[in-house]
Write a structure and sequence with these properties.
By secondary structure, this protein is an all-alpha fold. The protein has 17 helices and no strands. The protein is flat and about 110 Å long.
């Protein structure tokens, strides 16, 4: 009996110990399971939260795009009294935006800018074509659509290149489709030259067009081609001139060269045999550079500086010196622009 009782006591104690351990293990397991379940539910909740945020963001983006489009549509509409005309123009702009991977609002913002040329280009076909070329400039030059369009229009207004060499009267006498073809061809020639200059230099399209629009009007009056203007702009940018000052300096040089009664034309006339100050005033800057080259090469540094001051003034003479000292490089850029101008239109070679 004693042995039996001792065994029961022993097994009772062992049983109590094991049961306590098993209960503790089960509670721990339940705690772990609860933690796993809560973690899984938390992950699911985070997933739903992220999805909701994405959906809300997408909705907001669509709403913002819609309001931007409508806002730009209002800008376009004010230039058209005929509803059908403005709708056709807006639809064409949107389709062009899709082709160039711009949003509807961006494309319409550019179109609103060209809609202002209604009194200049006359036909809607020509205006739509101008919009297409402005968007192309923005894409090639990696600019915002409205900036690219502004640069395109400013250059066109200063040089009248979209008329393709025709007078305003000759252009207006054409049919709408003929006007669009003129705008298309002349714009492609111009963009091809600008893109070639960009590809041939370290200057970028945004900077080149900014500089151009500071002096293009004066240079155009002097008979300078857009290719030569762009070449000089790129050269000054390559030689370290600030974007804001390069165009100002070139504008000053063209202004001074156009006056036969100032020190600039008189100083040049003394160095070019058979040419007086009046004759100098009739020359383009690119021609002046070429004709001055032999005499300039024989000058001392002091004489070169004095000549540059007479031509460009004390604030901008260094720009003229940079052009004269880098004539070989300028010639390379001018040749590239010339080849681009008279190359095949189909072979644009736009930089991607």
């Amino acid at each position: 009996m004693a042995k039996t009782g001792a065994a029961r006591v022993f097994f009772d104690v062992v049983g109590r110990l094991q049961s306590t351990r098993l209960l503790a293990d089960s509670k721990a397991a339940m705690t772990v399971q609860q933690a796993i379940i809560l973690d899984a539910l938390g992950a699911v909740q985070d997933g739903f939260t992220d999805m909701a945020n994405y959906v809300a963001g997408a909705v907001n983006q669509v709403v913002e795009s819609f309001f931007e489009f409508e806002q730009q549509l209002v800008r376009v509409r004010k230039f058209y009294s005929d509803d059908d005309s403005y709708k056709q123009f807006a639809d064409s702009a949107r389709e062009m935006g899709e082709a160039f991977a711009f949003t509807g609002g961006e494309a319409l913002a550019a179109a609103a800018r060209t809609a202002q040329l209604k009194g200049v280009l006359k036909s809607q076909e020509a205006i739509i074509e101008a919009t297409r070329q402005g968007l192309l400039l923005a894409q090639v030059g990696e600019m915002e659509t409205e900036m690219g369009m502004n640069r395109f229009i400013n250059l066109a207004q200063q040089t009248q290149f979209m008329y393709g060499g025709l007078t305003k009267a000759q252009y207006e006498a054409l049919e709408a489709e003929e006007q669009a073809n003129i705008v298309r061809q002349s714009s492609i020639h111009t963009l091809n030259q600008l893109n070639t200059i960009e590809n041939s230099s370290v200057a970028v399209m945004e900077d080149i067009t900014f500089v151009l629009n500071q002096f293009a009007s004066q240079a155009n009056i002097a008979g300078e081609s857009i290719g030569d203007m762009a070449a000089m702009s790129a050269l000054l940018l390559e030689t370290g001139e600030e974007v804001s000052r390069a165009g100002t300096g070139l504008r000053m040089i063209y202004q001074r060269l156009g006056n036969a009664n100032n020190e600039a034309t008189k100083a040049i006339a003394e160095l070019i045999p058979g040419l007086d100050a009046q004759g100098v005033a009739q020359l383009k800057l690119s021609d002046v550079i070429t004709k001055l080259a032999p005499a300039y090469a024989a000058m001392t540094s002091e004489e070169k500086r004095a000549l540059a001051v007479n031509i460009a003034g004390s604030r901008h003479y260094i720009k003229f010196l940079k052009i004269m000292e880098n004539q070989t490089r300028l010639s390379e850029l001018q040749t590239a622009a010339f080849r681009a101008q008279y190359g095949a239109i189909e072979e644009l070679g736009f930089k991607t």
